[in-house]
């Protein structure tokens, strides 16, 4: 196991910015209109760059620079993609508008906050990972401070869904600090244990439906792949995290005696698309799914103003936007793969 962990360490150390998770389903319009009337009316989002829609200030994030946002909304919007991210697709599934980012809450009217709020910050973790990105506990604190003011615990939260993005950045940060490699499995358990505390706290605050994405196959992200493909050692450690998470969710649902907590199976959705080069066997939408559209130091320029990256001709032809994040089209496919199973688990309260 030692040699495997060292290999994992050498790959992960490259990263300074892993993300989070989320998931959902790109249902047909008839499908989600049929369901959403009995589903959540608000979406509260906690997590990292897979979920974030613009909380990080412009000076602190590459996601506010060109070419991010070229597909939607046509300019950088703080999303780590060429367009929409998982939060946008999950809101569509629920039949509501994408909730505003917490940073902009005082710039919009209360009417525009009725779909919930997004507390996710790119680069964040369950524990402290980045000085400009509040960890999960702090994000929940920000949410709690709004209760009784903007949101009512009784009427608003009982009809809401919380999306809780898990880990990823915690592991890159752990290894970047040169902490004990041998103790990494212990740290994975600490991350999941803290996640359990966060889930219990959100439920105690009044949220009756909570979705937790599994970690995607981090070893298949372009930043970590090799000419041979995905890193299986990396993915084995991801699976250890996910197995612990599944145990926690099963325990919490047993305690509440209902399906309060739902795992969104990011891992298998990503793997299905990478294996099939699209949503289903025979689909050839992504000819080279491990090749990102924006290669190099995406969003950065040199001292002469020349781009330090290259762009593909059509983002819709790529599953990954940069070394870590899917394109808008990639997220659309992820939601399609998750399909009716996700719809059924999230739309019944």
From TrEMBL:
UniProt GO BP: lipid catabolic process
Signal peptide: 1-24
Tagged with keyword Cell inner membrane: no
InterPro entries listed in its UniProt record: GDSL (IPR001087), SGNH_hydro_sf (IPR036514), SGNH_plant_lipase-like (IPR035669)
Gene3D superfamilies: SGNH hydrolase
Cross-referenced CDD domains: SGNH_plant_lipase_like
Annotated Pfam families: Lipase_GDSL
GO function terms (MF aspect): hydrolase activity, acting on ester bonds
Iron as UniProt keyword: no
Key words, A-Z: Hydrolase, Lipid degradation, Lipid metabolism, Signal
Membership in a protein family: Belongs to the 'GDSL' lipolytic enzyme family.
Name by which UniProt lists this protein: GDSL esterase/lipase At5g03610-like
Organism for this UniProt entry: Brassica campestris (Field mustard)
